[in-house]
Write a structure and sequence with these properties.
alpha+beta, 3-stranded antiparallel beta sheet, rod-shaped
């Protein structure tokens, strides 16, 4: 059974920068992240990427869930039978 991933800030930063994040420094006053005082990514950019990535993950998860339900229905399975296999599929 697949789980929906929760996308975190570090996931978004990794998507935005090809640099190694081990040198990351967060400047609270400027609300920016720096790598070795060279690269900066402002918080709004990170938040936008985070939102985009989480939305894509939510869509992927819902499609996978819908595809499973569709496959079970093609096998003429009842809701009770589907719930017996995976009780999370028919949850709202």
């Amino acid at each position: 059974m697949a789980n929906k991933n929760i996308i975190g800030i570090l996931d978004a930063i990794r998507e935005l920068s090809s640099e190694d994040i081990t040198g990351m420094v967060y400047n609270l006053e400027e609300d920016k992240i720096y790598w070795n005082d060279v690269t900066e990514i402002d918080r709004a950019t990170i938040d936008a990427k985070l939102s985009e990535m989480q939305s894509a993950e939510n869509t992927r998860f819902e499609k996978e869930k819908s595809d499973k339900i569709s496959a079970y229905r093609k096998l003429s399975m009842t809701d009770d039978e589907i719930n017996a296999i995976d009780p999370t599929l028919l949850e709202e």
